[in-house]
Amino acid sequence: MTNSAPRAEVVVDLDAIAANTAVLRERVGRPLMAVVKADGYGHGLVPAARAVLAGGADALGVAVLEEALALRAAGVTAPLLAWLHGPGTDYAAALAADVELSVNAEWALEEVVAAARATGRPARLHLFVDTGLSREGATPADWPGVVAAAARAQADGDLAVVGLWSHMAYADAPTHPTIAAQVSVFEEAVALARRAGLTEARRHLANSAATVALPDTWYDMVRPGIALYGLDPLGGVPAEVGVSYGHTYFPESETTLALVPVGYADGVPRAGGNRAPVLAGGAQRTIAGRVCMDQFVLDVGDAVVRPGDEVVLWGPGDDGEPTAQQWADALDTIHYELVTRVGGRFTRRYVGSAGAV
Ligand SMILES: *Cc1c(COP(=O)(O)O)cnc(C)c1O
């Protein structure tokens, strides 16, 4: 290995991210909010954001305000929504940076209104209704109160409600009965908001799986994340749980062992020991034994390998390497978890030029 060779790297193809965005945008024929939360699903927040915008994304979505402010600090000016806020969030900073906000409760709405009054900047607000995911939205019982309070604040000039939205629980199983139920709750919630005078707000519900498979959920805007990074949103449900846990590996005969210098401190799941596939020495091999903090071992049999040879954990699968979906199946998880957790001592190398400055 030469001294300049990176020890471990994540190769991110910016042109692929842009092309994926363009394909989805073209398919839906309406505005697309590209989700770049969790450090762009592990691909780098700012480069991912620039690439999706180069691919035609109309807006960006992130979970927390820190992510939104980091995008603004990097000079990204696109419309931008941040949706996960605790009590005491610095909404004034959000308004100063022209970040759209989501609220799901009257207490949060009051904090946003106070910030709007203090700064003289009306908020651009998305109201989040729970339609069955039971995670972050206002419950159907609380929804009328949230809508009424938002309509009052809008009439007072403190905010404009620009979005009515929800999130799906089972879009990756397109025939699941909860889908029709969520759509129907969503439509009732929208109708109530429209009657309260929130007539300008865009409706948005579809994540990646719904953007791919459920046109009835596209409404006025779609909100994909994982699909922009080339991962199949419909492949995310493991068919069965993994088998045994914590085996120790014993080679069956004399063999060559190769040491790979990344471990769970770098985001390689410890559960990959004896289960996850890796391309090395011209073939896929299962990680031999436990994944350690900084390294793991491969049994490469009688393949000829040398120190510094390339090992690929996952990729598109075109050159014999495993895919993130194969890892997810082996580990009884979803590829979302895998791509977002890789970090540590991996460096990122970007290829392609979409959105590059
Ligand atoms: C993460 C997230 C998305 C994107 O989901 P994907 O399955 O990655 O497409 C959309 N909306 C909300 C509220 C999210 O939290």
Would you summarize the structure shown here?
The protein is of the alpha/beta class and 357 residues long. The protein is built from eleven helices and 14 strands.
Describe this structure in words.
With 357 residues, the protein is α/β, with parallel strands linked by helices. It has two domains: 221 residues, Alpha-Beta Barrel (TIM Barrel); 104 residues, Lyase, Ornithine Decarboxylase, Chain A, domain 1 (Beta Barrel), CATH 2.40.37. It is built from eleven helices and 14 strands. It is elongated, with a radius of gyration of 23 Å. Pyridoxal-5'-phosphate binds next to loops.
Low-confidence stretches: 238-247
Broad CATH class of the largest domain = Alpha Beta
The SSE string, one letter per element, is EHEHHEHEHEHEHEHEHEEEEEHHE
Strand content: 15-25%
CATH topology of the largest domain: TIM Barrel
Supply Rg: 23 Å
**Alpha-beta classification:** alpha/beta
**Helical stretch count?**
11
Overall tally of structural domains: 2
Ligands, deduplicated: pyridoxal-5'-phosphate
Care to count the β-strands?
14
Helix content: 25-40%
